[in-house]
Amino acid sequence: MSLEIRGIDKSFAGRNGVQPVLSGVDLSVERGEFVSLIGHSGCGKSTLLNIIAGLQRPDAGEISLDGVPVTEPGPDRAMVFQHYSLLPWMSIYDNVREAAASARPDRTKGDNDSIVERYLRVVGMWPHRSKRPGQVSGGMQQRAAVARAFAVGPKVLLLDEPFGALDALTRGRLQQQLVELWSGESNTETVMMVTHGLDEAVYLADRVVVMAAPPLPSVIEVIDVDIKRPRDKATIVHDPEYQRVYDRLGHLLMHELAPATGW
Amino acid sequence: MGLALAGVAALVLLWQIVASARPHVPSPGATLTELRTLLASPLRNAGPNIGDKGIVVLLGSSLIRLFTGFALAAAVGIPLGFAVGAIEPVRRATNPIIQVLRPVSPLAWFPIALAALSMTPPAAVFTIAITALWPTMINTAFGVGSVPQDHRDVAKVFRFSRAKYIRRVLVPYSIGSIITGLRLSMGVAWMVLVAVEMLAALPGIGGFVWDSYNNNNMPAVAAAILFIGVVGFGLDMILSRIARRFDYSVAR
């Protein structure tokens, strides 16, 4: 499923008047691509993701999936949120089942239940399905949130800094599970991930979109990551292509786009 | 536990000193004797007058009045709170009314209720309902109006129907605030009930206080204060137990 982003502008009304966040975002994402969005705070990367999800409307421009304009949330897209965002009063199982059932009313209950079970097993949360989110670790909550998103069977998966709050080991395992799900048994073809991590952006993506805050244009540079899959997190750092992209990103974010303060 | 006992001992000592200095203040000893008398026949129900009824019977009448008013307040206040919290035009239309009526002592409603209902018992229940209405409604509206953006985004992305949003997000999120509102309501309603029963000389623990005063039986007034305190504490304990069952704060 190809995702077309055309001329997206978005501003927010703030205390100091109207603050532009996104200006003139153009991006084409091909079927089967994994794209990382990276940039400093305020560059609008999460806003762009929300617009694609249909949670927010752009002031101008259009998002379309295979030529069909997107204006509201739909079962062709699912999202993994930064703060897991499981509903704390429901069991892990109910969180996934209820979300998948309402996003996909076309399924029978039996179909939905077996899909939910499959993804909870894949992420290793099946044994913990009766627990409430507050009773398991952050990493486990995010695994459940990943299962919830995949259980919808979306063509496009949207990830908003999904692993930012996790420790390095947990993050690594989850990244690997994500890639396996995306390239393996799921129907998900396209992934867009907002991240703050340079290594994560390069390791996972086919292309990295570097974004900046106004008054700069929103999309500064799109860098192809020409490393074949499957990729090995341990050895990829020695790959010259990895180093080339990583260095270019580091140069852009820490020199050319470095915020005036805070670094 | 040791410190709690020390605190009680200090209070009783202070009480004894004050009682020795002022002859009309009931002493701890006299109050204890009165407590024994009251507890000797707690279930007595010999006639319609306050003096004919045992202390537990009187407390029972008060509690029935309290729960009736409280239930009325919940039945009106919770749905109203949902409307105020979830629907912006409703909030704006009702906010000035709520802000003006909320600080009014509920006892001020009693004469109107009495005139309208022409009997004291339902007028007292109405006053209790007014008392309990505000905290119930305001806390419900607060809970309903403060569902985090995260939860609302989840409901949108996964396309929860309106019914499912209410059942799976709005109600479970607000239940904590609603119970807090009920708990506050119960506390204030219990206080106001004693006053309203005194005002209306109704058979109940408040009426008992007034009746004892008129019979110049101050130890009975002091004993009634103890009963009122213990029952109020018990009511609060029950509601705080219930509140704990709906506390998901570990995961919020």
How would you portray this structure in words?
- The complex is a heterodimer of chains A (263) and B (252).
- With 263 residues, chain A is of the alpha/beta class.
- Helix content of chain A is 34%, strand content 25%.
- In chain A, the strands form 2 sheets. In chain A, strands 6-7-8-3-9-10 form a 6-stranded mixed β-sheet, with helices on both faces.
- Chain B is an all-alpha fold and 252 residues long.
- Helices cover 79% and strands 0% of the residues of chain B.
- Chain B contains 10 helices and no strands.
- Chain B has helices spanning 2-21, 28-40, 55-86, 88-101, 110-117, 120-145, 149-157, 162-200, 205-214, 218-245.
- In chain B, helix 3 (55-86) runs parallel beside helix 6.
- The longest helix of chain B has 39 residues, at 162-200.
- Chain B is elongated, with a radius of gyration of 22 Å.
- Chains A and B meet through strand 6 and helix 2 of A and helix 7 and helix 8 of B.
Quick structural summary:
The complex is a heterodimer of chains A (263) and B (252). Chain A has 263 residues and is α/β, with parallel strands linked by helices.
